[in-house]
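Predict the structure of UPF0145 protein CA13_11420.
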Amino acid sequence: MPWKCPSCGSETDLGYNICWTCQAPRPGTDSDTGISRLEMLVTTTPTLTTHTIDAYLGPVFGETIYGANVLRDIFAAVTDVVGGRSGAYEALLIRGRNTAMAEMTQRADQLGANAVVGMHFDYSTVGNSMLMICCIGTAVTVTPKISPDGQEPQ
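Done. Here is the predicted structure for UPF0145 protein CA13_11420.
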């Protein structure tokens, strides 16, 4: 299902976070700075030591595909020759991870979850210049083992 770019009016396939025509960001995606804080408890472990899992609501996913541009490829090629880290690609990975996690937690919230357990990422390339990042976890409802006032729940 395509989305319509608010900047130029062209259509781009869902899953792409930038307009194919004008390179404008898709509405609702993260900015270059990324998200600073998730509003939901997310862990890579299957259980939580601080909370009791009350219900498993099912798997949730967040996915994003970013296209590399010519300048980023040129700078990465120079980095390959002289050595060192590619800041442009690292920034792209951070943005992609943040976007995928934000989409995953939004979907968990839509299911009524207040946490995601067992979260992990999967990275893949699509074509010659696209990076796909998937975030996968299990949406759950949890209750803290210790109440906010420091007492154990009854």
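The radius of gyration is 19 Å.
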